[in-house]
Amino acid sequence: MNASASGTPIISLTDVHKHFGSTVHALRGVSLDIYPREVVVVIGPSGSGKSTMLRCINHLERVDHGTVVVNGIPVDKAKNINRVRAEVGMVFQLFNLFPHLTVLDNLMMAQRVVRRRSAQEAESVAMDLLRKVGIPEKVDAYPSQLSGGQQQRVAIARALAMQPKIMLFDEPTSALDPEMIKEVLDVMLDLAKEGMTMVVVSHEMGFVRAAADRVVFMDTGKIIETTTPQELFTAPKHERTKRFLSQILH
Amino acid sequence: MSEPQIKSRKAATEKVYTILRELPWWAVIIAIVGVVVAFSVLTDVRYQDAMYFVFDLPWDRQLLGERPVQGDTWTYTPDPQVSLSPGLYRIYAEFNAATGEVKDETDLFSEPNAKSAVLGKVPAAERVTYLKWHIIPKSGMTLQQTWVNVRAADGREGWLQDKSLAGQTLEKVGQSDFYLLEVAEGAKPVAAEPITGPTTEMVRLETTLPELSGPVPAGAVVRIVNKYDLKQTLKRAWTSKGVMLTLRATLMGFGLALILGLIAGLMLVSRNPITLAISKLYVEVVRGIPLLVIILYAGFVVSPYLREATDGKLDLSGLPGAVIGLGFGYGAYLAEVFRGGIQSIHHGQMEAARSLGMSYFQAMRHIILPQAFRVVLPPLGNDFMAMLKDSSLISVIALPEILQQGRLWVSRTFRAFEGYNTVALFYLVMTLLLSLLVRYIERKTSLPGHSED
Q1: pLDDT at residue B198 in the model
Q2: CB–CB of A90 and B355 under 8 A?
Q3: In B185-336, at which residue ranges do the beta strands (DSSP E only) sit?
Q4: Which residues of A touch B447 (CB under 8 A)?
Q5: Which residues from A are below 8 Å from B450, CB to CB?
Q6: For the segment B107-150, what is each residue's pLDDT rounded down to a tens digit?
Q7: Measured between CB atoms, which of A113, A159, A162 is closest to B362?
Q8: What is the distance between the alpha carbons of residues B244 and B399, in angstroms, rounded to a whole number?
Q9: Mean pLDDT for each consecutive 10-residue tract of chain A (250 residues)?
């Protein structure tokens, strides 16, 4: 979508290792640079460390070895990790909306608490975003009253309300019914068109084709190859990538 | 029994079950309790007295003054229509601020007795003021003064015979508590001639006021109280014994337990090993010691120590000590409740909040705790009821809450059955009302789309 990698990376992972307990070695030396306005899609079999890498970027997981630099700030040593996180929006597989708050309050809470915006300001930001994701009429509904697709769109809007520079998507469509996937992908495509820096863990090949600048294929905690969508579909370099693609592209 | 008979009986049983099933559980309990209460209270004056004493009603009891009635002679004048047969009577005294005019010049006696020392003379037509009282049992019977303690215009005080006064004006200033008048079995017929006090063998005034125990009026003090007054009632509710003391101790104790429990609960889910160790130590130690022992510590170890250490400036004896004991003991249980509630919230909630840039405490306050509150509400309600009942333990440090009042009443009247029934009834009514309240709050705070039961 965007011009290829140029300038200084906005996210930079260098030789990142992550262990869970003493047995699971989830990331084994991952290095990846992501540049502003770039859309990077991460694919790979389950257990390959895709989500873990994403969660390391905004420090939901502590990195055991290596460095993660976001927006020029080393995440591990950041004095105020909350300030880093406010610049990095995250969308989860299971939406993780706040069930005790209405849609509007879901969108307003972090604006009020973290950004210290006035109620009017937060509400106008929230309403703009709800219109953008196409469900302004659900403003007073509770999450449990929404469909999965609507919930995920609210979750995207909630992350966008903080006006982040980067958006991370952790399998945003894999908990959705097939007919709801499109409404979420449409929102994501719009975001990509606007030039948002996005890191997306997803197997939606339609999205890869339409929006991805680069595709990263991971397996067993390592990056196997980084490529463009065209190359991925026409000429994957690695045997492992070919095998994986033959499994998911029927 | 024939086949159709069995069938029809089965159908009838089924019908009864259906009716019972359709009744809400609380209606059944209220109905049972209601019948018991109505039966007891309406049929037995002892229950009224016990309830009055145990509740220590905060109304209708503003003290206007105390007046010794020692030495007042009083006469029971039998009404020809009514004979005072053996049994229990509920009586009260009515008090009037009276003035009267002395008919003829008369002696002012030092005691209510014509043989006592004469203090001086009161001239005819002088107006004197005095307190006039009479005791009103059932219709047609009054017990009234024959001697009155008067204050003359010149300030002298002394005793006159009631019959030497004329032109009396009466202004009711109050009435006494209700007393039980018990006429013993085998008492002489009362119609024969007037019976005079104070050494009557015929009637025994049984009462729960310490000043009036024993034959009346020997050594007695009557309390003059006025009628219902909201301000006074509220004021007295803070100092009255019985039910109000139990409620005060429970509310304050639970408030303290909530604070301690929330802090310890948050510490239990923290990853800091020191805070974790402190909270675990608190929870495990306190949960392992009976609440009774903790209350005894608070009342007899901690409070006296603090009093001495601060030269009496910090005195926690009495209610504060009890509240600390209850709150400290229950805080450990509530800590576990809060820990469970917080951990029951999906970790994705914390991650979502943190990913939006909230700090740990902001996420706790705005995201986790409001959700956890809905989870812990039923167990919190349970623990509140348990504490209401366990507040009876503070009677061991001599606080006159419901149980202590009940025991006092029993020790006075030797009526354990009525006394402890009354105590049990008060607890039962309070816990029933509470469980209704908890269900109401649960309904009010439940989220749409989540089931209520």
Answers
A1: 33
A2: yes
A3: 195-196, 203-206, 221-225
A4: 99-100, 142, 144
A5: 99, 144
A6: 888 877 778 888 888 888 888 877 676 666 554 556 666 777 78
A7: A113
A8: 12
A9: 64 92 89 93 91 91 90 80 86 94 94 93 94 92 93 95 94 89 93 94 90 92 91 86 82
Find which of B346, B349, B355, B374 to mutate to test the A interface (most A CBs within 10 Å of its CB): B355
Give the contacts of A178 (CB within 8 A, at least 6 positions apart): none
Enter the tokens of residue A9: 């990376």
Question: What Rg, from alpha-carbon coordinates, does chain B have?
Answer: 31
Interface predicted TM-score (ipTM): 0.91
Q: Cα distance from B350 to chain A (closest Cα, Å)?
A: 9
Interface test with B, best of A55, A61, A82 (most B CBs within 10 A): A82
Are residues A98 and B450, on separate chains, in Cβ contact within 8 Å? no
pLDDT beyond 70 at B67? no
Please provide residue B22's backbone torsions phi and psi, each rounded to the nearest 5 degrees.
-75, -20
The span from the CA of B53 to the CA of B24, in Å, is 33
pLDDT at B295 over 80: yes
Residues of B in contact with A159 (CB under 8 A): 355-356
pTM: 0.70
Nearest CA to A223 out of A31, A34, A62 is that of A31
Contact call for B370 and A99, based on CB within 8 A = no
Q: What is the pLDDT of residues B390-435, one digit of tens each?
A: 999 999 998 999 999 999 889 878 888 888 988 998 999 899 888 8
Query: Smallest Cβ distance to B355: which of A58, A98, A145?
Result: A58
- Provide CB contacts within 8 A for A21, sequence distance 6+: none
